[in-house]
Amino acid sequence: MDLNTFHGLIIGLSTFLIIGLFHPLVIKGEYYFGTKCWWVFLIMGIAGCVASIICDNLTISALFGVFSFSSFWSIKEVFDQRKRVKKGWFPENPNRNKD
């Protein structure tokens, strides 16, 4: 069996892990920095796009693409997280100034 037969599984598992990583990043980012951290996700998304374009390996390029668009989606999620905090679904950081 060739390693190439596992590319789909590698991409699938890695996508699952990348998305799972971004969930707590959004929660912690909003907790400590508020919605002001959205630009960090933008920079990570742009960097992921650039890396995906320059990478010659198809699997790694796809993973950079997944990372990139997970970063872009996290921008929306940071603002949605703020709404969830206001609803009382997540704790608000009492030590942070309001956005």
Radius of gyration in whole Å, from Cα? 16 Å
- Total beta strand runs: 0
Q: Tell the overall outline.
A: elongated
How many angstroms separate the termini? Answer: 54 Å
User: Can you count the helices?
Assistant: 3
Low-confidence stretches: none
Instruction: Please identify the structural class as seen in this structure.
Output: mainly alpha
What is the arithmetic mean of pLDDT?
A: 94
Order of helices and strands: HHH
Instruction: Report strand %.
Output: under 5%
Largest sheet: none
What is the helix fraction of residues, given as a range?
over 70%
Give a description of the structure.
The protein is 74% helix and 0% strand. The chain is mainly α. The chain has a domain of 61 residues. Helix 1 packs parallel to helix 3 and helix 2 packs antiparallel against helix 3. 16% of the residues are buried.
